[in-house]
C-alpha cells in the first residue's frame, strides 16, 4: 500500500530519536554519582535513602489516587456479569470480522466484472459496527439486565484502494480493515474485556447503574462507537458516530489520530451527517444530547480551523435528530417525537421512545441564525432519520423529507 509507506518508514527514525535520549540521560546520572563520591562518602547513602523514600511516597500517592478506581472496578466486576449476545442467523453477513491490519492485495482473478474506463484512482472507505470481542454484550445483576443495541458495535473501517501502474493500464486493488482506535476502544482493548455497562436498553435500575458506574469510572456514560459515517472536510477525513466527537483517520494506513473538537470549540456530541454548505464550503454540524442544551447547531469554517457560529436552538426535549438539511443560506432541522429522556428511565420507562401522541416540527433557520430566527412548521408526528433534496427557489428554502411511519 503505497500511501502507508511513508508512515512505516518514519517509525524507525522516531525510535532512533527516542532511543538516543536515555543514553544521554544515563551518562549525566553517572557523572552526578561520580561527583558525589568525590565530595562525601555519606552522600550516596543519604541520597539513595532519599531517592527510595521519594519513590515509596510517589507509589503510595499513586496507590491512594488509584484506590477509588480499583474499588469501582472491583465492585462492577463483582456485581455485573457480561455475556455475549447470540448472533441471529439472519445477521450472519453482519457478524464481526477481524482486522486485516496491512492492506491485502486483491488478485485480478478475484475481481468480478471490469473497472470502467476513466475510473479515478482513490479509495472507497466504509464504516460500520463491528462489536469488539466478537459480539454485542449484555449484563445481568441484582439490578436486572441491560444490553447493547445493534448500533453499539465499535466502528470498523473497510477501505478498498484503487491504484494504477506507472504505465497507466494495470489496476492494483487492495483491501484493508481496521477498528477506529477511539479512546474507549483502547481502554477496553488494554483491559482485554468489555468494561462499559450497556446503558440504552434494559431494566431501569440496571440502566441507571450503568450511567453512574460508566461515568464514575471513565468520565463518560457510553463508548465512543465511531461507527456511523466517514466524512471529509478541508482535506482531512474523520470517522464518527453521533454520540461523541469525530476521530481523524489517516486514509493510507487507517490509523486513528485525535478526536476533533474544532480547535477546542465543540464540547458535545457531533452529528454523523455533517453537511458541506453549497457555495461557501463551510461545514454545518450539530449535536444532540440527553441533557440541556438538547440541540446545538454549528458552522465550521471551510478550512476547518475554527467554529464560526454556534446556536442553541433551545428545544424543550431531546429529539433524536440524526440529519440536517442545508441550502446555500439556510439549515433545515427536524424536531421529531422520537426522543431520549433520562428521566423516563427513572420512572421505569425506556431511554429512547417514539411519543406518537406528541408533536413534530420542521424548522428552517438562516445559516447564522439562532433560536429566535428559526421558523417552525408543525407537521403530523413522524419519525425520520435522513433528509434529501433541500434547495432554494429564490430566497425560499424547500425540502423533500421522506418519513418512516
Ligand atoms: Fe444516518
TrEMBL record:
Binding of Fe cation, residues: 273, 322, 386
Alphabetized InterPro entries for the sequence: Carotenoid_Oase
Cofactor note text: Binds 1 Fe(2+) ion per subunit.
UniProt entry keywords in alphabetical sequence: Dioxygenase, Iron, Metal-binding, Oxidoreductase, Transit peptide
Stretch forming the signal peptide: none
Stretches with biased composition (Polar residues): 1-14, 23-39
Region annotated Disordered, chain positions: 1-39
Known cofactor(s): Fe(2+)
GO MF terms, alphabetically ordered: metal ion binding; oxidoreductase activity, acting on single donors with incorporation of molecular oxygen, incorporation of two atoms of oxygen
UniProt-listed PANTHER family: BETA-CAROTENE DIOXYGENASE, OS09G0321200 PROTEIN
Family named by the database record: Belongs to the carotenoid oxygenase family.
Listed name of the protein: Carotenoid cleavage dioxygenase
Organism: Zea mays
Higher taxonomy: Eukaryota, Viridiplantae, Streptophyta, Embryophyta, Tracheophyta
Name of the gene: LOC100286117
